[in-house]
User: Fold these one by one.
Assistant:
Number 1:
Amino acid sequence: METHITSSAKQPHAKYGTRDLLRLIMTHAHPKKGLFVIGILLSFVATICSLGITLMLKEFIDAFNHGTSGQLLLRLGAVIVVQLFASVASSFLLSYTGVDAVSTLRSALWQHIVDLPIPYFDHNRTGELSSRVVNDTSTIFELISSQFSNAINGIISIVGSLTLMLLLNFRLTIIILIVVPLMAVIIVPMGQVLARISKAIQKETANLNSAAVQMIGQNRLVKAMVAEKALKKQGKDQVDRIKGFSVRQIKLISVLNPVLNIMLLAAIFIIIVYGGILVQTNALTIGSLVAFLMYAVQMISPLSSVTGLVTALQQTVGATERIDNILDSPEEDKRLSGETLSTIDTVDFDHVDFGYESDKPVLKDIDLTIHRGERIALIGESGSGKTTLVSLLEAYYTPTRGELDVNGETMASYTIPSIRNQIGYVSQEVDLMPGTIRDNLLLGSTEPVSDEQLSALLTQVGLAGLAS
Ligand SMILES: Nc1ncnc2c1ncn2[C@@H]1O[C@H](COP(=O)(O)OP(=O)(O)OP(=O)(O)O)[C@@H](O)[C@H]1O
Ligand SMILES: [Mg+2]
């Protein structure tokens, strides 16, 4: 078994990009592509309808002097209904695709982590792994279910409004086109800073998660060492680091939004002043001016969601890399094609060497034969390797030299589940899974066990009082 696993966090993969995100989603999240495409199409329809509604309003206003047309109102009503239906349906479909894909990805991660070999858990912190399953998948969820569709709608809205504005009045559009790049000059760099901050927040939140898991799990140790003070400080420092970044984030957002609003107002002001002049000289109708104003808003407001997508993609690439690292780590080889071990008669350690790291041997030249029915006690100082020896028997690790035989055959010839099924292992650490005592007693059993069978078993091992 290949046991050398490098810590993933320390190796930056410059090659990671949006393409990897797409590959991860396609291979592990199995998104419902049909629903997604329908959602995007409906959202396209909704955006086109809103652009159309503005155009009809223009007609409506311009027709005001000549009496309103009932037919126009009817058309307007119909388009509003279609727009409403399309946006409700697309919003549902896109969010549903996101929920569904992320659930699939989360399950895949969970299944994979259960099957990772023991050395993997030696090299990766519990809190970090759990943060992958919970937080990193949420980042991907946000991207699929909202940011992506917002940006697509944004692009349609920007291109559509721009085209219609150009058709309505060329010169007025050019003026707006001078204002927009000015806004981009502000949005883009601030967006990049925001992306960096939110990446830092993500990272520090994962650290908090990991530290909390340890603090809670090791609380006995904390108390025994009277380390409460140090741990409280550690927790506060960690929380303060997140707060620091979050405060910077809200400062930036607080500035960004009003600045954008002012620029939007400036654009509206320019349109009204210049457009007003055009209306007076009969170069533009009032309806066109109103439509123009609405298009300007429809073009400028989605700008932030389009640039937001870039930020979101950057964040998600980080999450993708971390999830990929887990999914790429090979699962434990259960040797399912091997023989089934149905009873243990002898266990033979034949000149076995083993070390967790290649340069630090723990077991050296262990030569030991154990026969069925024997009672063996391993006695040694703490750290001498007693638990390690049992870990080899459980096939958590494989010897680096020598051979471990069961019933005269190398242990590697038996399937892993059949070996572990033959070994009753009570660890020195009390390991319980959440659930009832019954759940814990029956952990891993695949057949239903009646209360009678259970209490008979408990009587056999001298724990009869437990079941009642
Ligand atoms: N997962 C691991 N990764 C790296 N080194 C380990 C790991 N588990 C144990 N070791 C190291 O291997 C050596 C043997 O540890 P082991 O737990 O087998 O000792 P032990 O005899 O069971 O001790 P104790 O009496 O305290 O239970 C120790 O030096 C320990 O630090
Ligand atoms: Mg031990």
Number 2:
Amino acid sequence: MEEFFVQEDQVIIIVLTGVLFLLLMGVSLLLFFFFSRKKIVEKEIEKNILEITYQKEIIQSIIITQEEERKRIAQDLHDDISSKLNVINLNANLLLDGELTPDEYTFVNKLILEVTDRTLKSARKIAHNLLPPILEEFGFKDAVEELADTFNNSRKINIEYTINYPKKLLVPQNELHLFRITQELINNSIKHGKANNSKINISYKNNELIYSYTDNGVGFNVANIDNKKGLGIKNIESRVTLLNGKYNIDSKIGKGFKIEIII
Ligand SMILES: Nc1ncnc2c1ncn2[C@@H]1O[C@H](COP(=O)(O)OP(=O)(O)OP(=O)(O)O)[C@@H](O)[C@H]1O
Ligand SMILES: [Mg+2]
């Protein structure tokens, strides 16, 4: 009888230990899931914050670019157009006064025509800078050809280009983005790279437009890119984002510069 009770006690102890063990396992599992979920959520929040910060930086750089562009247009208008219109205005008033000798009259008249002509040229130049007409009329390929020819003729840098992608693949606004990116890259190759050769290669494969630009200049350390004050590369980044693309810059001191953009 006593032996039976002893056995029953042992069974109860074993069952209780088992239950306790299962409970402990359950609690540990719960804690494990709770903390790993918390970690995942924390990581997601961190990622979202990084993304928001990145988007903010891009928007900031777009705003700065717009402001810079406005400032430049205002300066061009002020220096190039307003000053010339002032000269025309003054001289037209002289004609109105009627106190000029016939020779003076002819002189002032000629001057007005000459300055009007120069004002028209300036206005055309400002408009061309805002939107190159060749880009609007014939598209990106022709605009790059013209751009490259201008640089090649200047003998500062030799630009080679191979452009192959279906016409109308990019809407005009996106072609303008690619064109502005190309202008900035060439300017950087000359200004910083001291390069005498650069290559533009655009191809279309598996539904992707691959834009690559290389120069043979002095290169720079890409790791320091975030510390640079310039806006050029930041603008390129903003434009690539607007194009829904990705980009990668590869450069080393003494090894030239390369950027690949995939849209
Ligand atoms: N092709 C290149 N060769 C060598 N260094 C380059 C090249 N492109 C860019 N860099 C380096 O990267 C930096 C950042 O270029 P970015 O175009 O952003 O600015 P920036 O040209 O100095 O100024 P901004 O474009 O605003 O006039 C440059 O100051 C230069 O040090
Ligand atoms: Mg630049």
